[in-house]
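Title: Request for sanity check on Glycosyl transferase prediction

Description:
We are preparing a figure and want to confirm that the structure record we downloaded matches what your pipeline produces today. Could someone re-run it with the sequence below and paste the raw structure tokens into this thread? We only need the token string, no images.
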Amino acid sequence: MADFHQNGNIAQFHNLRARPLEEMIYEIEAYAQTRRISLILPSLYSELEGPALANILAELGKVRYLHRIIIGLDRADERQYRMARDFFSRLPQNHVVIWNGSPRMQGIEARLAGLGLAPPEPGKGKNVWTSMGYLIACADSAVMATHDCDIVTYDQGMLARLVYPVANPNFPYQLSKGFYPRIGEGKLNGRVTRLLVSPLLIALKKVIGDRDYIDYLRSFRYPLSGEFALRTGILPDLRIPSDWGLEIGVLSEAWRNLGPGAVCQVEISDAYDHKHQEVSPDEASDGLNRMSTDICKAIFRKLAVDGTVFSTDTFRTLKAVYYRRALDMVEVYAHDAKMNGLSLDRHSEERTVELFADNITRAGQIFLESPHATPSMPNWSRVHAADPALMQDLKAAVAADQAEFAPLDFAV
């Protein structure tokens, strides 16, 4: 994707293949002497047994500029936590595994619930939110990055390019968002971005008119990428959705708190592939079916906060406009795939568009029926105001879990 196009809304940084990676890494290492950089890895236990994570750790083992790696571990029992401790012990950096399901961490969540501040549901959003709270409590990092643990094409250059814009003290950027083409195994991937978000934003602009927020989201080449880095000064005031709207929610918070001049996107890979979610057309609470609904709700909520008035008729019209535009885009993607020697199943793509169209009205109805719902978790500034000791107690709980539950040989 070596071009130099700028969309005029947010800064775009491209890989023009003119600078050795080693030179960029050396520069980041110099910045890291006074601006410590930490990495958050939200992980399911099952990902330890997958094809990607071992290589990710091997690549991260080469990275000298990371001050700390925080692994948020979900869906793990005590034995699996011990095994995870052993699995991640190969990392040479200072690192910690947060066992989100431990009795101590459940006690922290009970305290949050007593204050009315508990995350509404488990998931990646809650995992990242908890890890951010731990990082804030450590109070020793200037830059935080996060990426998924299922990237099968991972290399250390992805992280270097992601953190550079916010690690460089001479740049004004507070948030850096990664983008890349989603291809793998000879196929054009990235269905939710291609078939839902892009045509939905076009349809919204047509139905409700010009909105700066819509133009802002359309500026991102891959708004749903799980790779972003930011300066830690903004962490305490960041409200993160607990559902699949996490990535859209982070961009929305940047729009609200920072403005587009402090946000950039950076090309971090020529070819990116990771675990693919099932569409799950018969199960509304799973897979891309659930993800598409949550993303629509996140966008609708933000537009409503900015003053857009929605009605049932609005969502019916939006569905119709989206459907026609999405089908047009399926044809364009088919041509793009053909030209590049990639496969694309037109029938499957159009069936997915039909599902997404139904979920636009479904998300709209949920939004209209629950106008007072609080889908985002509280920011850490509010948690601290409600319970000034909680973040330090969270940090202490993680340390106590590490002391009590020794690593277990992963081969056992």
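Thanks, this matches our download. The domain at 11-399 is CATH 3.90.550.10 (Spore Coat Polysaccharide Biosynthesis Protein SpsA; Chain A).
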